[in-house]
Amino acid sequence: MKFNNIIIVFYSLFLVSCSDKTIEGPEQNPTIGEVVLDTKFEDGNFPAFSFSEGKVIKIPNTQGLVPDITISVHINEGGTPLGVFLGSFDLKPTYFFKYWSSSVDSSQDYFDSLLFISDSLFTDLALPIKDGQVWAVTTHDGKYGKILIKNSLAYIDSSDINNLTPYGEVSFKWEYQPDGTNKF
């Protein structure tokens, strides 16, 4: 009799676990990833990156999302692109340069071992951007992130000869601390 009761309990648990009803909580956005951000202006929107959303967003947007990282092309007086730089949508001090190495492995190791961001003097812009740099970032809502620049490029887009346009792009690995602390 005891054995039959155990079988019934296990069978009941099996049926419950196979149920298509799932308990869903609030959807969590990613806190780490890689992204490519560019300067393409399309349909009246600029691309920008949001740590809290964990992705590239468009600005302006109807959802009221505020980006943390914007990108622009750095050009000299003659109009020649020198590279790209990062800014913030709200023009507040956002970036603190942490490390640079021409070795991808060294930069990756530093990024991975950066577990604490101290209260430092953050600047308005991340300039100049170079491959292999690690930057600490404060978000628009006072939280912390970090980025590892994987690749960047800038050039004059001449696909429309009547409208030569500077184009820039940066790819970076990122990590975000959503709880507001400066520890990863």
Explain briefly what this protein structure is.
The chain is mainly beta.
Structural overview:
This protein has 184 residues and is mainly β. It is 14% helix and 38% strand. It contains two helices and nine strands, in the order H-E-E-E-E-E-E-H-E-E-E. The strands form three sheets. A five-stranded antiparallel sheet has the order 1-9-8-7-6, covered by helices on one side. Strand 7 and strand 8 (144-157) form a beta hairpin.
What topology does this entry show?
Layout: H1 2-17, E1 32-38, E2 46-50, E3 55-59, E4 70-75, E5 81-87, E6 95-100, H2 104-113, E7 133-138, E8 144-157, E9 165-177
Antiparallel strand pairs: 1-9, 2-3, 4-5, 6-7, 7-8, 8-9
Give the termini separation. Answer: 54 Å
The whole-angstrom Rg is 23 Å
Mean of residue pLDDT?
88
Structural class: mainly beta
Q: What percent of residues are in strands?
A: 35-45%
How many beta strands in the DSSP annotation?
9
Q: What does the overall shape look like? A: globular
How many helical elements? Answer: 2
Strands across the major sheet, in which order? 1-9-8-7-6
The helicity comes to: 10-25%
Q: Helix-strand pattern, N to C?
A: HEEEEEEHEEE
**Major sheet characteristics:** 5 strands, antiparallel
Any low-confidence stretches, pLDDT <50, length ≥5?
Answer: 1-25
